[in-house]
Automatic annotation (TrEMBL):
Provenance organism: Candidatus Wildermuthbacteria bacterium RIFCSPHIGHO2_02_FULL_45_25
Name under which the protein is recorded: Galactose-1-phosphate uridyl transferase N-terminal domain-containing protein
Keyword Transferase: yes
PANTHER family listed in its UniProt record: ADP-GLUCOSE PHOSPHORYLASE (PTHR42763)
Keyword Nucleotidyltransferase: yes
Sample GO molecular function, one term: zinc ion binding
Entry-linked Gene3D superfamilies: HIT-like (3.30.428.10)
Highest rank taxon of the organism: Bacteria
Keywords assigned by UniProt, alphabetized: Carbohydrate metabolism, Nucleotidyltransferase, Transferase
SUPFAM superfamilies, sorted: HIT-like
Active site feature: 176
Length: 342
């Protein structure tokens, strides 16, 4: 008789990390939505109500169309529904020089880049409550600003992400996301690129395409599909109810998505977050774009861009922090089955 273990270690083929699926102390899916959460405190006034007093817009959309405005004369257009402005407290700032240097044995350079906040108009409605057109408009703005910045000096990677809720790091209640363009390739995407490249060199195929093909045949971890995208709870989920949105076709570069592909992405992203909100009672979460780096002349044709959604369902403790091995307390197969029904 085969021994029953209290957990199962699963290997992520791309990042080459191990994750622990704690089957022995697994929770029922519906228990995650019953947890009490702290909310971001809302002041008397929203800081996004006075945008013109903070920073000028870099790009704006109004009801699905890009707004043509002169930043020299008009800082914030009078009518907008989605807008991007420079972060008032940026982590990176534009400059023509990186000032690379050493401090003792340590390489150092200035935090050169771009840091912007992408804001949707409504104070309370977020992606699950948006019309599909509003979600598409937000993705169009992501894409347009990505294209605007990809050829700027010292920009090598552009991170687009959303922090929703206090546990996910959001300090402002008004729904928003962020874009940060940085002068190097970050360690997380570098591991992903390395794993993708190693698989391609051995098999002459995309590892993400292979995994997605297997998931679509197996069907156990599929949450949602349309003609262009699949939403999956990955086999080696790092957290409970983790989801990833993959283009079904092989696409290394987010900036090369066309109009119809962005429309399909809008539907997939909205459906994933609707199911998460309904099933887990509107949990805090982070989502972020993983795509091939920009500039540098390298060919990343082996890569496959995607969006990762990480709900805040637990707090990392000593084991996770000390070993780098994440623990999930629900099997991704059960998580996907629960979310499909929402």
């Amino acid at each position: 008789m085969q021994k029953k273990f209290p957990s199962e270690l699963r290997y992520d083929l791309v990042s080459q990390d191990w994750v622990l699926i704690a089957t022995g102390r697994a929770r029922r899916p519906e228990t995650f939505g019953a947890e009490k959460r702290q909310e971001v405190k809302t002041g008397k006034t929203c800081p996004f109500d006075a945008l013109a007093k903070q920073e000028c817009a870099t790009i704006a959309y109004n009801k699905g169309k890009r707004v043509d405005f002169s930043r020299g004369k008009v800082c914030i257009p009078s009518e907008w529904t989605t807008i991007s402005v420079a972060n008032k407290y940026p982590a990176f700032a534009p400059s023509k020089s990186l000032r690379k240097r050493y401090v003792g044995p340590y390489p150092v350079m200035d935090g050169v880049g771009f840091h912007e906040v992408i804001i949707t108009k409504d104070h309370k409605k977020d992606i699950p409550q948006f019309s599909l057109m509003q979600v598409k408009e937000m993705i169009d703005l992501y894409h347009a600003r990505y294209v605007d910045l990809k050829d700027e000096d010292h920009v090598h990677y552009i991170s687009i992400f959303k922090n929703k809720g206090l546990q996910a790091g959001a300090s402002i209640a008004h729904p928003h996301s962020q874009l940060i363009a940085i002068p190097m390739t970050d360690p997380d995407i570098q591991r992903s690129l390395s794993g993708s490249y190693a698989y391609f060199m051995e098999h002459k195929d995309c590892i993400h395409c292979m995994m997605l093909e297997w998931d679509r045949k197996d069907k156990k971890r599929i949450v949602f599909e349309n003609s262009l995208y699949a939403v999956v709870c990955p086999f080696a989920s790092r957290v409970s109810f983790e989801m990833r949105i993959y283009p079904k076709g092989h696409l290394p570069y987010f900036e090369k998505t066309d109009e119809s592909q962005r429309e399909g992405l809008a539907e997939a992203l909205q459906m994933a977050l609707k199911k998460l909100s309904k099933g887990l009672n509107d949990p805090d979460y982070n989502y972020f774009l993983h795509t091939a780096p920009v500039g540098g002349g390298s060919d990343y044709g082996h890569y496959h861009w995607h969006i990762e959604i990480l709900p805040k369902t637990s707090v990392p403790a000593g084991f996770e922090l000390g070993t780098g091995i994440e623990i999930s307390t629900i099997e991704p197969e059960k998580a996907a089955a629960f979310l499909r029904k929402q």
